[in-house]
Write a structure and sequence with these properties.
Leucine-rich repeat, LRR (right-handed beta-alpha superhelix), mainly beta, 7% helix, 43 strands, single chain
Length: 631
């Protein structure tokens, strides 16, 4: 996350710097800003006497030549950049000669230069940035250098006089809407096999474009790349390919359609099958490398998907709103389940999350009401905002020991959730921690083995709902007022070796009937700890065998009228592993998780159901017999 914030800050700095150069001196007709005194480099910048949002250099007209070097106070500088907004909205310049020293043409440098007819980009330039020539409506001749690797966002958008375009070998990326609405552009020639990525709407609205060659190197496509072009209109109905990418399904897809993506396809474009309600099944080739955002958004008829292990990159919203999807198999090559990947897949029941996945991004499984088992793996480290929000079918959630971060609303409104287990591995929780389980109105059991969560303020939304609290052995101190006024709380299991129990920790827990204290020797506590708890006639204190006399001799502990030497039984109900008062499938699930290493037996006092040896399949069989009434 820290790395992301640094990159974001850097991106903002770069974007801001597009029009933020300081004007250090004037030479000839232009103003310059020193980039490096030691390197002797400058940027050509806009007129400091004119607001950067106003037309620039309107005193110049016709053909202009930008010098390669300029001199100021005896120092000669090389011009390497045309700064942001430099010739913003100029309507008098018709041609610009750019020297071979320039390496960067920055944001909006020639934005809406409505008189500009010709521009030659020298071989020194590698990146044409956002809106550089956007709105140059008379630009008819464009000569791109063969050193350019990236054409920026909306760089030539609205150049309505441009009629032919040659993209030289070396260009790798063309960003969003770079040539959008170039309405006279009729032919595009792409040379070489270097171009791999066209973001969305690159040629959208090019209403004359009927001829374009796409090399096989193209495999990453945004949505609407060719929307509104004759090229698209002339394609036959069905799945249309561009280069080695499945671009978009054209026409109305019949119900029950099965699609097999052809061999050699490396990418599926953004929104490729979006809204194809008739899609019944999809088969992917082993050549596939990535699936872009919204690829199957709203494919209501899609029931099951298996993504091959060749896929290394998946983007957000891929299966968003696939309300008929019941199962998904993810590749063991991905590290992230992106934002909204399965959001709205209301009948989704099964998703394998491979042990390569480290991050569940925001709302990845939002509104997946059909899930009864948490889709997660032992490799997941981060659960972001709302990842499992509104997963009504989840009844028991055990967060694996690999997880270190849980963000806001991670499990909010999971109204079927009865039991939640949080391990000691979690190191970061959201600032609004209580909203993690906001709206979980049936969350009766909390199994907490983490000092960050050893306080009901982290679960204030369910303070009057939780009935069973099991505090794991990683917790060494229970804070003051930790579980104060938890009026529904009936049973508490304290850690084995806690060293302090804060004042008023369980004050006002008027329904508390069982306190399990596995410490062989009691520690001193304040009378306020159990203030309002019916120690003398209702609440039972469960202690280890042989410890009763020690507790009877210790202040406050001795006030429990019922002191039983059975700490570790976990419940008055035989086979009640999680201590919620009933024996059901949740108890079986816990034992299964313990056996496969997803949970710890130390979290459940009643895990050894048969009381013989270690926890094994015999304990599960006994639970099944209890549920069936055979025992």
């Amino acid at each position: 996350m820290k790395k992301f914030l640094l990159l974001a800050a850097f991106a903002l700095l770069v974007a801001g710097s597009a029009g933020a150069y300081q004007q250090d001196f004037k030479s000839g007709n232009f103003f310059y800003s020193v980039i490096s005194h030691s390197g002797g480099t400058v940027a050509l910048v806009h007129d400091p006497n004119v607001s950067s949002s106003k037309p620039q250099y309107t005193n110049l007209s016709g053909e202009i030549t930008i010098p390669s070097t300029v001199t100021n106070d005896g120092t000669t500088y090389t011009v390497i950049t045309i700064g942001g907004n430099c010739f913003y909205k100029n309507n008098t310049i018709t041609k610009v000669n750019i020297p071979n020293t320039v390496t960067s043409i920055r944001d909006r440098a020639f934005y809406q230069n409505t008189a500009l007819t010709k521009i030659s980009i020298p071989n020194s330039v590698t990146f044409i940035r956002t809106d550089a020539f956007n709105g140059c409506t008379k630009l008819s001749e464009l000569d791109l250098s063969n050193s350019i690797d990236t054409i920026g966002r909306q760089a030539f958008k609205g150049c309505t006089s441009l009629h032919m375009l040659a993209i030289p070998e070396g260009v790798e990326k063309i960003f969003y809407a770079a040539f959008e609405n170039c309405t006279n552009l009729s032919a595009v020639f792409i040379y070489g096999e270097t171009l791999s990525w066209l973001q969305g709407s690159v040629f959208n609205g090019c209403t004359s474009l009927n001829s374009i060659n796409f090399p096989n190197s193209v495999y990453r496509l945004g949505s609407n790349v060719m929307k509104g072009t004759p090229w698209w209109n002339n394609q036959a109905d069905g799945l249309v390919y561009i280069g080695s990418a499945a671009y978009k399904y054209k026409g109305t897809m019949p119900d029950g359609t099965d699609i097999t993506i052809k061999d050699g396809t490396k990418g599926i474009a953004a929104s490729c099958f979006e809204g194809c309600k008739g899609l019944n099944s999809i088969s992917f080739p082993n050549s596939l490398l990535e699936i872009s955002e919204y690829a199957f958004n709203g494919c209501f008829g899609l029931k099951s998907v298996t993504i091959p292990n060749s896929v290394t990159t998946m983007y957000g919203y891929i299966f968003n709103g696939c309300t008929g999807l019941t199962s998904a198999t993810l590749p063991n090559t991905i590290k992230t389940i992106p934002n909204y990947t399965f959001a709205g897949c209301s009948v989704l029941k099964s998703v394998n999350v491979p042990n390569t996945v480290e991050t569940i991004e925001s709302y990845a499984f939002k509104d997946c009401a059909g899930l009864t088992v948490l889709p997660i793996s032992n490799s997941v480290k981060k659960i972001w905002v709302g990842a499992y929000e509104n997963c009504f079918g989840l009844t028991s959630v055990t967060i694996p020991n690999s997880v270190t971060l849980i963000d806001t609303n991670a499990f909010s409104n999971c109204i079927g959730l009865k039991s939640l287990t949080i391990p000691s591995s979690v190191q970061v929780i959201s600032n609004n921690a209580n909203s993690i389980v906001k709206g979980c109105v049936n969350l009766k059991t909390l199994n907490i083995d983490n000092n960050l969560f050893a306080n009901m303020t982290k679960f204030s939304e369910i303070r009057e709902i939780v009935e069973t609290l099991n505090l794991g052995n990683s917790i060494y101190a229970i804070p003051e007022d930790a579980f104060k006024d938890c009026t529904a709380l009936k049973k508490v299991t304290l850690p084995n070796d806690f060293t302090s129990l804060g004042n008023s920790a369980f004050s006002g827990c008027s329904s508390l009937g069982d306190v399990y204290c596995p410490r062989p020797r009691p520690i001193p506590i304040d009378a306020s700890v159990f203030s309002g708890v019916r120690q003398s006639d209702f609440c039972k204190l469960h202690v280890p065998s042989g410890s009763k006399t020690l507790y009877q001799a210790m202040a406050v502990w001795k006030d429990f009228y019922y002191i039983l030497e059975d700490a570790g039984s976990g419940s008055d109900v035989g086979g009640d592993v999680n201590g919620d008062g009933t024996v059901d499938v949740d108890d079986i699930n816990i034992l299964v998780n313990i056996l496969v290493g997803k949970d710890s037996a130390s979290n459940y006092a009643g895990a050894n159901v048969d009381g013989i040896g270690s926890i094994d399949v015999n304990d599960i069989n006994m639970l099944i017999n209890i549920i069936l009434g055979k025992e």
